[in-house]
Specification:
The chain is α/β, with parallel strands linked by helices and about 850 residues long. Strands 3-4-2-15-16-1-17 form a seven-stranded parallel β-sheet, with helices on both faces. A hairpin with an 8-residue loop joins strand 9 and strand 10. Helix 2 packs across helix 3, helix 8 packs antiparallel against helix 9 and helix 19 runs antiparallel to helix 21. It is globular.
């Protein structure tokens, strides 16, 4: 560290740091550098996901070492192709505007930005300060100007306000919620004078405190009024007057001429309000830290190439768009801006390796000259500070304790736990192993990974390093145990496409019963040809079904092994079968009613109140519970502590926290010495639950196991044997758990995920279980029968309808079909290491 500080004090403009291999180690060093020098630093990394990782690690070290209060500013790039006709995500727009507002007002000393955000053109700091506003008590500020400014800055009028980016007006009172404020402001005007400023609770609408100043950040990084959009329509007609653009232009000007926005308008708006600034204008006094310059250069070079290709393709298709140079800095401008900055280059392998990389550098796609944004030819001071990754213990606490007490651990040891509950549990475990650590060695915070930094005499272990993912044994099985050709069952699938069938398969016609599919036939009738499914019934009777009425036909499925006999076409056998099925349904309804009546009378196991470890387990949850989650958990625990067997349905959308409710219930059961069975309809879901449960239960003496076809026959036999002995606390799996060879002698709780996706036979087994043990059912989409029973009071129900805080909404765009849009969407998702599902009516 001293060497790095001296290098800057001696006038070095570029310092190359080598040997640091992880973001967490780099963040540790940079946080100390910033605290000791007081210099503002801006970290440049290659993607938005790494921006978040850097910010979290810097916040961890700064909060524990420097204890400064200013926020870490994160500036992500738009993950939307400007030539796809799609608007950027509103959350990203808000985040960028807030970050630029903070930088313009010098509200932070550390910034983290992605490579693509560095090259985008934007408004100047002075313009941005005019977009936002700062109101002070007893000073003049017209409420009309304020309302107009809020609308132009991207705020939406709502009464009452309930979210960031909203405002309301009632007489001389304006409520507004700025993205940089924990609570909304209530501003009262007396004429054009700010009479009072208060913050208030949006739930209760009650004041929290009086304020002297209200800082209101913009929701987007430019001003746009209805008149601006009308002006855009006029100038766009002039700019894109060529006949090939006529249709595409009309689709947009129809909206803009009315002062309304349209998809992708943000990337066309600079036509009337060119962006004259760049991020460099906001980073004048910052030391630029470039994380792996070769990687960042590759990202930027690829992006420049992509933009030129997409713009050319757009032009060829007759779609309108502004040139790349109107939206982004050109490479020559970028090199010029970078040349003026003081920089720290983080090169894990040092400058020697970087020189080799330069020999293979690609050419600049916009100027046909080498890009070379961070050339190693520049004279730079090189300093080596080595770091190395720590050992992973995968929950083997004896090994971890031995490692801590041996001479293997360098200098000061820090254990980073995500939550206070996990920190307390770690302390308790180490006490059992008689490991004594210095005060303050166990800290609470989120760190991306552990490392050793000999130069600082520092060793850091994270929760993941200690407990890890105890699922290595099945990773091979996950990839290799799916039998070839066995991915899709031949039974039980509704025929949505005749290509699913082959000649000889049995099908069921809703009116005529079981027949044999004998292929497709084209029949000419009245001058036109139509395609029919040919079904063969008893005595070789034939039935032709038009393919457009395939909804009348479904694939025949039967759990019986006897051979199938076709029905007689026009006979009464099928009618009798349907009548018998209806009677069976009525009988099942009677049985269900009796079952739930019995449950009201049967005396089940009453679980005791929460044990001390229950509180530690719950405190280890790294997120804040929503009100609905907390209510569902409380209701579930109350049911479990009752003598009547629980049968509770938890309804909530994907990602709303149903699994956390199940985990807490499972832990409560395990703490009372009971076994828990978690049933899922698919092997993938079973595997996901196994990962989640293993991670949460890792710090506690509870054994979690998986039973599904991802496990070999020998492994399944071993798991079943351990379960029968009561040595498995939580058994997670598919319907395989319901097999006769699986015994759970101390079963106290059954968790069923998406019960509606289990077959009739499995549900019969579940019904018998429900007489004796507590059952918790999770569902995002309960079937009508389940929902009806819950609404009638036959089953208890908890609804989680509040999304977790900061959960990003799905960004849905409806656009005209365009291969360019599809291509850009796929490329952008691949660039951020995401997943793509392409759904189409024809494969």
């Amino acid at each position: 560290m001293d060497e790095l500080i001296k290098a800057f004090q001696s006038g070095s403009r570029i310092v190359c740091l080598s040997g640091l291999t992880s973001i967490s180690a780099k963040a540790c060093l940079l946080a100390r550098f910033q605290a000791e020098t007081g210099k503002s630093i801006a970290v440049l990394t290659n993607s938005n996901s790494e921006v978040d990782a850097w910010a979290a690690d810097l916040e961890f070290w700064r909060s524990h070492d420097a204890a400064t209060g200013s926020p870490i500013i994160t500036l992500p790039s738009f993950e939307t192709d400007p030539y796809s006709g799609v608007s950027p995500h509103a959350g990203t727009q808000e985040r960028r505007a807030l970050s630029l507002w903070q930088l313009a007002n010098r509200a932070g000393e550390i910034a983290v930005l992605s490579a693509r955000s560095l090259i985008g053109r934007t408004v100047t700091p002075d313009e941005l300060r005019d977009i936002g506003m700062v109101l002070k008590r007893d000073e003049e500020f017209s409420p009309d100007d304020m309302i107009e400014g809020l609308v132009m800055a991207g705020y939406v009028r709502e009464d009452p306000i309930s979210n960031i980016g909203q405002f309301s007006l009632r007489g001389g009172i304006v409520d507004v919620w700025s993205p940089d404020a924990a609570n909304p402001f209530r501003i009262e005007f007396f004429g054009d004078t700010v009479d009072s400023i208060r913050s208030f609770d949006p739930e209760t609408q009650l004041s929290v405190g009086q304020l002297d100043t209200a800082s209101i950040a913009p929701m987007r990084e430019f001003l746009a009024s209805q008149q601006d959009l009308k002006d855009w329509a006029f100038f766009a007609a002039e700019r894109f007057s060529d006949e090939q653009f006529e249709r595409n232009l009309r689709d947009r000007t129809e909206f803009a001429a009315e002062g309304e926005t349209f998809n992708g308008w943000e990337f066309l708006f600079p036509l009337i309000k060119p962006n004259k600034g760049s991020v460099f204008d906001y980073l004048r006094d910052f030391v630029m830290v470039i994380d792996e310059p070769v990687t960042n250069e590759g990202v930027l070079d690829g992006f420049y190439r992509q933009m030129v290709e997409h713009y050319d393709a757009l032009h060829d298709l007759g779609e309108i768009g502004l040139g790349p140079a109107e939206l982004f800095l050109e490479p020559a401008e970028l090199r010029e801006q970078l040349a003026d900055l003081t920089a720290i280059e983080l090169r894990a392998l040092g400058r020697t390796a970087a020189i080799t990389d330069e020999q293979f550098a690609v050419s600049d796609s916009m100027t046909s000259s080498p890009l070379f944004l961070f050339p190693t030819a520049k004279k730079a001071t090189e300093i080596e500070i080595r770091s190395r990754s720590t050992r992973k213990f995968h929950g083997v606490m004896a090994d971890f304790a031995a490692d801590l007490t041996s001479a293997k651990t360098v200098g000061r040891t820090v254990l980073a736990a995500q939550t206070r509950g996990m920190a307390d549990r770690l302390e308790e475990i180490l006490r059992e192993y008689k490991v004594v650590l210095d005060a303050g060695s166990i800290v609470v915070g989120d760190l991306s990974g552990g490392f050793e930094l000999p130069a600082f005499d520092l060793t850091v272990f994270t929760e993941a390093d200690i407990f890890g993912e105890s699922i290595g044994a099945i990773s091979t099985s996950f990839n290799n145990k799916i039998p070839a050709g066995g991915r899709k069952s031949k039974l039980g699938a509704f025929i949505s496409d005749f290509r699913d069938l082959k000649a000889g398969d049995y099908v069921v016609h809703v009116d005529h019963g079981i027949g044999r599919f004998d292929g497709l036939q084209t029949i000419a009738s009245q001058g036109s040809e139509r395609e029919f499914m040919l079904l063969i019934y008893a005595d070789d009777a034939k039935l032709f079904v038009p393919v457009e009425r395939m909804d009348l036909v479904s694939r025949y499925s039967s759990g019986e092994t006897t051979s199938t006999t076709p029905d007689r076409l026009g006979g009464i056998g099928w009618q009798k079968t349907k009548a018998k099925a209806k009677r069976a349904m009525r009988d099942m309804a009677d049985e269900l009613l009796k079952l739930y009546a019995e449950r009201k009378l049967v005396r089940g196991h009453a679980f005791p109140p929460d044990a001390p470890w229950q509180h530690e387990f719950e405190d280890a949850f790294p997120f804040d519970l929503t009100v609905d989650q907390a209510t569902a958990i409380e209701e579930t625990k109350t049911d479990m502590e009752s003598t009547m067997p629980m049968d509770r349905l938890i309804i909530g959308d994907v990602g709303y926290g149903k699994t956390e409710v199940a985990m807490r219930a499972a832990f409560k059961a395990v703490m009372d010495g009971r076994q828990v069975a978690v049933l899922t309809p698919t092997t993938i879901l079973a595997y996901q639950h196994f990962e989640s449960f293993s991670k949460r239960f890792a710090a506690f003496p509870a054994k979690v196991e998986l039973l599904s076809r991802f496990r070999s026959a020998a492994e399944q036999k071993s798991v079943a044997a351990l379960a029968a002995k009561g040595e498995i606390d939580v058994l997670i799996g598919t319907h395989r758990i319901l097999s006769t060879d699986v015994k759970l002698p101390k079963l106290g709780l059954v968790v069923v995920d998406e019960e509606q996706r289990f077959g009739v036979g499995h549900k019969e087994k579940l019904k018998q279980l429900k007489k004796k043990v507590d059952v918790l059912t999770l569902s995002a989409t309960p079937i009508p029968r389940t929902l009806n029973m819950s609404l009638l009071g036959m089953r208890d129900m908890s609804v989680i309808e509040t999304p977790p805080r900061d959960r990003l909404a799905i960004n849905t765009q409806v656009v005209q079909f365009s291969e360019g849009v599809i291509r850009s969407a796929i490329e952008l998702e691949l660039a951020r290491n995401g997943q793509i599902f392409f759904i189409h009516n024809r494969v």
